Here is the input.
Amino acid sequence: MIPKVHRRRLFLLTLLLGACWTGLALRLVQVQLGDNEAYASRLERQSQLRLKLPARRGDILDRKGHILALDLEGFSYYIFAPAGDPYRTARLFSEVGDVPYYVLLSKLRRKGFVWLARGLGEREAIAVRRWKLSGVREYKEFRRAYPMGDVACQVLGYTDVDGKGIEGAELEFDEYLRGRSGWALRRRNGRGGWIPEDLPMRPPRDGADIVLTLDAEVQSILEEELKAAVERHRARSGMGIVMVPRTGEVLAMANVPKFDPKHPEDYHMWTRKNRTITDIYEPGSTFKIVTAAAALEEKVISPEDSLFCEEGAFLVAGGRFRDAHPYGWLTFREVVELSSNIGTIKIAEKLGKGVLYRYARAFGFGAETGIDLPGEVKGILRPPSAWSGRSLASIAVGQEVSVTAIQMACAYAAVANGGMLMRPQIVLEVKGVGGKVLKRMKPEPLRRVISEETARKLVEFLEGVVERGTGREARIPGARVAGKTGTAQRPLEGGGGYAPGEFVASFVGFLPAEDPELLCLVVIDTPKEGGHYGGQVAAPVFRRVVERVLSLPGHPLSKRIQEMLKRTPEMVRVPDVTGLPPDEALQVLSGIGVKGEVQGTGGVVMRQYPEPGCEVPEGGRVVLTLGGGGISGGKLPDLKGLTLREAMRRLKALGVGVRMYGSGRVVKQSPGAGVEVRGGTVCILEGRR
Here is the structure.
């Protein structure tokens, strides 16, 4: 007989158990009937995994199909920490990956997802598999590779570890290059293994290929010569551009020093920038093309008009401008050839602020060129309302203005292209799957800057710079080269004047001058040995780059230029035809295969250009300035204070005979200043030291 107290306890226990089973039964019914879909969905999420299927990033190629950047299959490894031996895992992966040991170890000591290595190659992947580390999982993805190393590194840019474009063409064309990732569903069983079954998926769509206008061979040549120049002159850096003037296609765009696009984090940000479009510099004398072009187009001066260059020093608004060498009287043509600052300033004064600014803007300064690369800057060109009393003089000679290398290259390309400014082109086409062309770029004229006649005159001037002026180190045997040197003081960091003894040397030129096909710009920043002038430092780099490009076997551009050079006539020596009647002078020139161009009025040739003894190509031109009937108002100028040589040159240009006594500077002249010049007038000059 069970005691009453025990029966009561048994009853309560039975009641409690019955309530529990009833609750479980009700819960089971609720789960099976009411929350079935919710729990089924949870089961689906826990057993299913949505895998990302990465798309292959498109290739970047040069104009001849050489691959500059591509995606290779890589292997990445991750772990859910803590798992396995963190010390061994950190040590082994620090040896094959980019993450240091102590960084990995710190991450492995915490809970959560940890990337151990990204984008390893096949050899490293085999080694990782042999380690058989607990908890380590493998994931296939693509890694960016640059088969030509650091060639064109600043133009190409680079990607981050996830394959996203960060700089250069990788960033600018990321939308085309990156493609579209796909996905696939997979289901795990209770033991964590994959269940073989067909589940929904979306395949990845690979990125498009970008074909650049660059030529890898020309790019390599430019980079090598820039590097050699920077080392030879112990310079801070160098920039260069090679392009086709008539289309605006950029064949090479280089910056030295360079960086490794596979490991950009190991280099300073400064070396990763494409400084030809992101950095500005004061151009110096290469900017004089603007002043010269405006003067010719506006007809404020003719090529053979003379300007007195003040013997090398000229005071403007309280500041003194100097020439590298003292000059007296120079023609407009000689002002350009010899790069006279003073002569250029006097021409700018004839133009005025508004006209000079308008032409500078027309040539593209103070605005982006529109090249398809990120980070381009406008440069600095202030409006005339912000100019000081000496700004007109400063800007005319390339001071108080800052430009990019691509702006300067495009400006000279406009001259070479008959006065038409082209948009610089860095991409030829975009190709999709199977080589289908998705987008093709065409040469894009922007505007006419100057007339074809003015452009032809400027080309003659620039050809004279190379033949007889400051750019003689750029001469190439058998080719007619046109170009301009530039030497500018380097502004202090943060402004406030110029760094003493620091200069930027530059040269920009093109050839053949009669039908330009190739343009090259070179800028060397802060050369410290072997001179600092553009003609000493940058012009030889131009020559070596162009000579190497022309020697490339089978290169389409070099072949075309070589064909032109083969047709280049022999050089002939110019005879002295001064003092002859124009008809007779033209006949003499025609007899040696040279054309004569007559300017001015008068009965005889008083001046010729090029001067007697100079060489010109057969079929070239000699400019003849007539006199004998009086020009420049028909009155004798005041010659006192001039050197006898300069006074004689000026009188000769007026058609006046000269007799000189003594030496040094003119202290007396007869007839005096203001006397009307007549046929046969002879001026007697007395000189004294």
Observations:
- The radius of gyration is 38 Å.
- The domain at 571-627 is CATH 3.30.10.20 (Trypsin Inhibitor V; Chain A).
